[in-house]
Every structure is written in structure tokens, then in C-alpha cells.
Design brief:
By secondary structure, the chain is an alpha/beta fold. It has two domains: 163 residues, Rossmann fold (3-Layer(aba) Sandwich); 200 residues, Dehydroquinate synthase-like - alpha domain (Dehydroquinate synthase-like, alpha domain, Up-down Bundle). It contains 16 helices and eight strands. The strands form two sheets. The protein has a six-stranded parallel β-sheet with strand order 1-8-5-4-2-3, sandwiched between helices. A two-stranded antiparallel ribbon has the order 6-7. Helix 1 packs parallel to helix 3, helix 7 runs parallel beside helix 9 and helix 11 packs across helix 16. The radius of gyration is 20 Å and the shape is globular.
């Protein structure tokens, strides 16, 4: 039983801080939210989003009307790309400050929400910029209020304290984590996600899967993060194939969205380690690489490395997609092959070579894993020693 492996004398912090409205039609809660923030004195906001999804999903119709109904003025920044950059954050912050905004509303998946969280900090620190923030040149403890309307079921960022933004000229993709960027409110409405492209549906869901495999096996994992991990895998195993076959199935989307939410809460508590630390260099070097695809490519190799250290937990957590694991260190190869086989069944067959990486790239990727700000913290939380040899092995096994 994995319960005996939890160090009960080490105190763990349990975090569940954002109020999230989950369900079909949850977008209508924006009217109540707008009324409340106006009563709090928030009369100007910056709206941060990507280039099109905020309109295509219909979310903007309700957000705009809610703002107009409550006489909340807004300025729109709709230039956030996948793997957002520090320059986009600075541009949005400048726009917000010049407008006099005192709050942030963000509509989108992980990229717009993470960019918006960064903007919310810098609005309180106008003498700083996004490079200062992501190179850890200061430690913020303030941000303006954030309202997040989530459009994907993968990142969990609508309910956690994390954000990720790239510094292109250095091939850095660091993460930050500050209490001040928990969204005040978040909206998780599966009806906004039925138009997600098939590959995006796959990749964002695999992001959630990686969150919990890591959160359940870090050095700071708790029974709470393991519990959430087990339920996340159960829901993904059941509802991802259904969603791929029937994209408009709101029940399936609902449970993938719920799985993503609790996965975000899981890693907000249990943190992350290898898979995210090693994926960030991939999508920093290739900004067009979908984060979830990068994670999928290296996940089997990570499972192979960490399984001997956490066999009981991983056997239990992975049981819906890799049955018949006994929870013994010797079956690490079986567990890794089982994860790879499951990924193939949901249509993810790529390896590093398929997405443009070569053996000669491994040294640079390994360097980035150890030099990118924040990734050293993730590596330090891995259940095994995260030395250069281990990182190179994971990359090489993923080719």
C-alpha cells in the first residue's frame, strides 16, 4: 500500500484557493462576477486573450455584455500566442497601465491565462518588466485581481498559482509560482470547449495526465495529491476516447474539464518534476510545439526512470491505463511500455525525432533543463536523483 510510503512527520500544505464555477452554462456566472467586482470599485480592466478562440467559443459575447451592463470599461489585448513570450506580456502590461486598468480578465487556455497572470503582477510593479519577473530578479507579493475564463481542459492554471512564459532569445521557458496570482474567480464551462481541434483535445488532456503523474511522485507529494491523481487517470481513461469520437459530447467534456481542474490542484499541492522540467526546453527551442505533445513524447521514459522509486503509488494511479501492475520496482519497463501503448491508443505516436529533434540536440536540451530559471527546483523534487546522466537518458530514450 502506498499509504505507508507517505512521510507522516513531514508537514504538507493543502491548497484549494480559487473559486471555480464548473458546469455547462458556467459562463453566465460572469454577470455575477462583473457585478461583484464593480461593487468592489473595479471599473477598468484589461482583457487578455489569444487571437480568435475567445470569439469563436462565444465566451466574449457574455464577457463583453457583462462588462457593458456593469459599466466596466475595458481594453483588449488579443495577441497572446501558444507558448507566450515576455514581449507579449510587456506589451499587454503597457496597454493596461496606459488605460488605467486595475484588474485583469483573461479568456483562453493556458497561454492567455499564464500571460494574464504575469500582466497582473507587473501592473503592480510598473518599474519591472517580464524578463525581470521570469529571470527571478524580484519576488512579487502583489497582483491586481484576476478573473479567468478557461477554454481548454488541460492546464489547471485557472485554479493554481503557476504561470509559464518564454524568453525567446535565451531559449528559456521558466515557470513562476506566487500566491498573488491565484485567480479570484474562474469559469470552467465545457460548452466553450466543444470546438477544440482533435489534436488539441488530445494534447491538453495529456498535459493534465502529466501533472498528476508528477504531483503524486514528487518529494512533497501528499495523500491529497495522490488521491486527485487516481481520479484524474480514471476520468481521462474513460472520457478521452469518448470525446475524441464524439467532440460535442458535453458529459465527456465536463469530466475531462473536471479532471484537468483537479490535476491542476494536485500539482499546486504536490508540485512537478521531470516531465515538465524536460519539456520546457523542447517548446522553448521549438515554440510551435504543443506543450502536451512534448510531454507525451517523454512521458514513457520518465515513468521508466521514476517507477522503481515509487512503484506502489504509480501502480495504483496508472491502473486504469496500465492494468496488472503489482507495484514492484522490477516492472518499470512494463509500466513505461504500458503508458506508451495507451498514448498510441489515443492517437499520440510521435517521438522526438518525429518533431524535429536529433541526438545532437540532447546536450543543449540538457543544458537548458539545468540553466533555465525555475527548472532546477522541479528537478530537485524528483523522486530520484536528477543528475545530468538521468536527464540525458530520458531525452535519448525519447528519440
Amino acid at each position: 500500500m502506498w499509504e505507508t510510503k507517505i512521510p507522516i512527520n513531514e508537514v504538507r500544505e493543502i491548497r484549494v484557493k480559487t473559486t471555480v464555477y464548473l458546469g455547462v452554462g458556467a459562463i453566465k456566472k460572469i454577470y455575477d462576477i462583473a457585478s461583484e467586482i464593480k461593487q468592489r470599485g473595479l471599473s477598468k480592466v484589461v482583457v487578455v486573450c489569444g487571437k480568435a478562440s475567445y470569439i469563436k467559443t462565444g465566451a466574449w459575447d457574455d464577457v463583453k455584455k457583462a462588462l457593458d451592463d456593469n459599466a466596466i470599461d475595458y481594453v483588449l489585448y488579443d495577441k497572446v500566442t501558444p507558448n507566450p513570450t515576455v514581449d507579449q506580456v510587456d506589451e499587454a502590461t503597457k496597454l493596461a497601465l496606459e488605460f488605467g486598468a486595475t484588474g485583469v480578465i483573461t479568456i483562453g487556455g493556458g497561454s492567455p491565462i499564464d500571460a494574464a497572470k504575469s500582466v497582473a503582477i507587473l501592473m503592480k510593479y510598473p518599474d519591472k518588466n517580464a524578463r525581470d519577473l521570469y529571470e527571478y530578479k524580484f519576488s512579487p507579493d502583489m497582483a491586481v485581481p484576476i478573473i479567468a475564463i478557461n477554454l481548454t481542459h488541460g492546464t489547471g492554471t485557472e485554479a493554481d498559482r503557476f504561470a509559464v512564459v518564454s524568453i525567446p532569445e535565451k531559449d528559456y521557458k521558466p515557470a513562476i509560482a506566487y500566491d498573488c496570482i491565484y485567480p479570484l474567480y474562474a469559469i470552467d464551462d465545457p460548452a466553450l470547449m466543444v470546438k477544440l481541434p482533435e489534436n488539441q483535445t488530445r494534447f491538453v488532456t495529456i498535459d493534465a495526465l502529466n501533472h498528476i503523474i508528477e504531483a503524486a511522485t514528487t518529494k512533497v507529494a501528499s495523500p491529497f495529491s495522490v488521491l486527485l491523481a487516481k481520479e484524474t487517470v480514471r476520468l481521462i481513461a474513460r472520457y478521452l476516447p469518448q470525446t475524441l469520437a464524439h467532440p460535442g459530447d458535453l458529459t465527456a467534456r465536463y469530466y475531462l474539464l473536471y479532471a484537468s481542474l483537479i490535476a491542476g490542484i494536485a500539482f499546486d499541492n504536490g508540485m512537478l518534476h521531470f516531465t515538465h522540467a524536460l519539456e520546457h526546453p523542447l517548446s522553448a527551442v521549438q515554440p510551435n510545439l504543443a506543450h502536451g505533445l512534448g510531454l507525451a513524447v517523454i512521458l514513457p521514459a520518465v515513468v521508466k526512470q521514476i517507477y522503481p522509486a515509487k512503484p506502489e503509488i504509480l501502480a495504483d494511479v496508472l491502473s486504469p491505463i496500465v492494468p496488472d501492475l503489482q507495484g514492484i520496482p522490477a516492472e518499470a519497463e512494463k509500466a513505461a511500455r504500458g503508458v506508451e501503448k495507451w498514448l498510441f491508443t489515443v492517437g499520440v505516436t510521435e517521438k522526438l525525432t518525429d518533431i524535429g529533434f536529433k541526438e545532437t540536440d540532447i546536450a543543449k536540451l540538457t543544458d537548458l533543463a539545468f540553466t533555465t530559471p525555475s527548472l532546477d527546483l522541479l528537478l530537485s523534487l524528483a523522486p530520484i536523483t536528477a543528475d545530468r546522466k538521468t536527464v540525458e537518458t530520458i531525452y535519448r530514450d525519447s528519440l
